[in-house]
């Protein structure tokens, strides 16, 4: 073995330690990079050379080389932010993002600095689109993984399909009209006088276009423990077949959607029966032969099996509705009776008052904000008060994360060594959960890197000494002959 071999051993040490210092420098440079995963260097010795000894043969090492550079995918700490679209993964997994210029270029990242751009795309700072599933109205995943893109920033309206009116009707009230439904006259500026009924309450409904309309229920004492009621709307908004044209003929029934009777138990004051007549057709309204504004209602009672009686308002500018009328009591054919809810209309000896009222449906709304849950579900909050599920962020994991190829920009690419990605919703199949309003910080331990830097520096210094000392020995060898 020649003396010059030690020169090459020293050079191998300088080369590998120089690369190690590069890795350390890269780690320290990315100490504040979101989602960065640090790397470490592994060394191995070079194939040894066989030399002769008095005992036979022996091996002399020829230096060192890089064995591998691996990434540490340990969890980084979380930084809280004020952006609801900043996401961090607590546990295993990667976000999926796609190059918008190439449908087939899909990448993986731990950096969750996301936002919506002007086109509704959910993107990272480089403009790559985050991937996930579309959610249905029940928050369930639909279809396959696709780009998270909001196609509309508005919530469509939803028409009312049930109105709830729970009141207490004063058991001591007086009967103010012989027949309440005959007091309604749509030809008058005020269709019904306030002296014709004992109590009234108004509920706001939504049509199919999101416009609001007032439905008013009027009550008056009937016979015994029975109360009459009528359900009405503004006659000018009544769009049922022929309703508006009949106004000019003296028809006083326009705007009345139905009438009925609520029967109470005289001793307990709770509902025992409800009867209802619905008026939806032109034959519901008739003029008496004398030409007066008399109104002949349908004689048949609306059929009911289980549930509630329904109204059929048809407002100007919207589609016809079917609205269940809920007084806090539901009919059960199995029981053959009306079953009262814990909150239902009553007849007690206190002033008539509205206890509770509500109606389903809502108008159109603009998207005001989005939130992301730990399960990755993106939910939109709209100006109409609706909270609508939109998308779910997808996560992916690999059998061999060390086989991923770094692309820069906090991105990784799938390779043959990494295997194909296994995708699932956050919190399932071994994947971590989502931490909203958070960013995962670099997992670089700067103290550890400084210690490695010192060790690498001293190793480099020692290897340089090998070269200088070997150079001195070669100089002595050459000086043997002067």
Can you give keywords for this protein?
482 residues; mainly beta; Tick-borne Encephalitis virus Glycoprotein, domain 1; ten-stranded antiparallel beta sheet
Termini separation comes to 25 Å
Q: In which range does the helix fraction lie?
A: 10-25%
Portion in beta strands: 35-45%
Tally of structural domains: 3
Textual characterization of the structure:
By secondary structure, the chain is mostly beta strands. The protein folds into three domains: 5-74 and 443-478, no CATH class; 81-150 and 392-439, no CATH class; 162-359, Flagellar hook protein FlgE (Tick-borne Encephalitis virus Glycoprotein, domain 1). Helices cover 13% and strands 36% of the residues. The chain has three helices and 33 strands. The strands form ten sheets. Strands 7, 8, 11, 12, 13, 25, 26, 27, 28 and 31 form a ten-stranded antiparallel beta sheet that branches. A five-stranded antiparallel beta sheet has the order 15-16-17-18-19, with no helix packed on it. The protein has a four-stranded mixed beta sheet with strand order 20-21-14-24, with no helix packed on it. A hairpin with a 4-residue loop joins strand 16 and strand 17. Helix 1 packs antiparallel against helix 3 (446-478). The radius of gyration is 40 Å and the shape is rod-shaped. It starts with a helix and ends with a helix. Mean pLDDT is 87; it is low at 245-250 and 281-302.
């Amino acid at each position: 073995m020649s003396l010059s071999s030690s020169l090459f051993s020293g050079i191998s040490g300088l080369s590998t330690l120089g690369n190690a210092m590069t890795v350390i420098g890269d780690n320290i440079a990315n100490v504040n990079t979101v989602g960065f995963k640090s790397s470490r260097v592994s060394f191995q010795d070079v194939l040894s050379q066989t030399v002769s000894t008095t005992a036979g043969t022996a091996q002399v090492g020829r230096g060192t080389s890089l064995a591998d550079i691996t990434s540490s995918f340990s969890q980084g700490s979380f930084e809280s932010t004020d952006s609801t679209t900043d996401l961090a993964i607590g546990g295993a997994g990667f976000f999926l993002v796609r190059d918008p210029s190439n449908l087939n270029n899909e990448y993986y990242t731990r950096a969750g600095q996301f936002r919506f751009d002007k086109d509704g795309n959910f993107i990272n700072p480089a403009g790559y689109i985050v991937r996930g599933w579309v959610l249905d109205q029940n928050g369930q995943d639909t279809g396959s993984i696709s780009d998270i893109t909001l196609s509309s920033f508005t919530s469509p309206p939803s028409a009312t399909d049930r109105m709830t009116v729970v009141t207490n009707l004063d058991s001591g009230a007086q009967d103010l009209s012989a027949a309440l439904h005959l007091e309604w006259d749509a030809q008058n500026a005020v269709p019904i006088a306030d002296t014709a009924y004992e109590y009234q309450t108004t509920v706001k409904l939504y049509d199919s276009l999101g416009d609001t309309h007032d439905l008013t229920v009027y009550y008056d004492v009937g016979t015994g423990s029975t109360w009459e009621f009528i359900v009405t709307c503004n006659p000018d908004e009544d769009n049922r077949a022929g309703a508006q044209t009949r106004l000019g003929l003296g028809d006083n029934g326009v705007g009345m959607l139905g009438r009925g009777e609520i029967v109470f138990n005289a001793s307990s004051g709770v509902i025992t029966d409800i009867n209802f007549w619905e008026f939806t057709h032109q034959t519901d309204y008739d003029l008496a032969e004398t030409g007066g504004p008399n109104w002949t209602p349908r004689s048949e009672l609306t059929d009911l099996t289980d549930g509630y009686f329904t109204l059929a308002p048809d407002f100007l500018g919207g589609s016809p509705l079917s609205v269940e009328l809920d007084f806090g009591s539901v009919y059960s054919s199995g029981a053959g009776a009306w079953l009262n809810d814990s909150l239902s209309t009553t007849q007690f000896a206190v002033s008539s008052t509205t206890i509770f009222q509500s109606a389903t449906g809502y108008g159109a709304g603009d998207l005001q904000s989005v939130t992301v849950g730990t399960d990755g579900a993106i939910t939109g909050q709209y100006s109409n008060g609706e909270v609508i599920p939109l998308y779910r962020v997808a996560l992916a994991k690999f059998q061999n994360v060390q086989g991923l190829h770094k692309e820069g920009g906090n991105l990784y690419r799938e390779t043959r060594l990494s295997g194909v990605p296994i995708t699932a919703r956050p919190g399932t199949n071994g994947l971590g959960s989502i931490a909203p309003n958070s960013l995962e910080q670099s997992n670089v331990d700067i103290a550890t890197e400084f210690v490695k830097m010192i060790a690498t520096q001293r190793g480099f210094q020692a290897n340089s000494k090998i070269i200088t000392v070997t150079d001195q020995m070669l100089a002595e060898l050459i000086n043997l002959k002067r």
